[in-house]
Amino acid sequence: LQLAARGLHLILVARREEPLQATAQEIRERFDVQVSVHSEDLTAPDLGPRIEKVVAGREVGMLIYNAGAVHGAGLLLDRALDDALTLVRLNCVGPLTLIHSLGARMRERRRGGIILMSSMSAFGGVGYTAAYAATKAFERVLAEGLWWEFGTFGVDVLGLLAGATATPSMARSNVKFAGARSVAD
Fold first, then answer.
1. pTM (2 d.p.)
2. In angstroms, rounded to a whole number, what is the distance separating the alpha carbons of residues 32 and 99?
3. Is residue 73 scored above 70 in pLDDT?
């Protein structure tokens, strides 16, 4: 909402259409900006070409990659291997794909910004969410390296690390954190 309040047009991309449409409707009602909604699987092997279609003909000035559901907590070997691989695709391959495409354009224009939303889990191995923590560490280190690489071209990069946050995904994971803040807070 803060970006729309500043007059920025938005492209919202996520897997689930209903929450995207609800957010877009709220933005349209409150702000005089354009909002387009695109339901895309950020773990899909053809993510790059799909995003290219979404942004075709548009100048994307900021990329905010805010994905990374835990998909349930449990011991690594007690969960399906594909659960961990999905997290790798979502939190490692997804941001790399979008950064490579959209970041190249920002570098060429010599302006723009990239925010990778990570987690405090990125600072150490966490039982019951080992694969998640590892992928969030990847995002954190990626942001740190790109801060320098892109910064030399006038593009800002920020790795943002959140603590426990009461999101719908967190609720589905059955993990309860005392004092977790709601995304509405």
1. 0.88
2. 28
3. yes
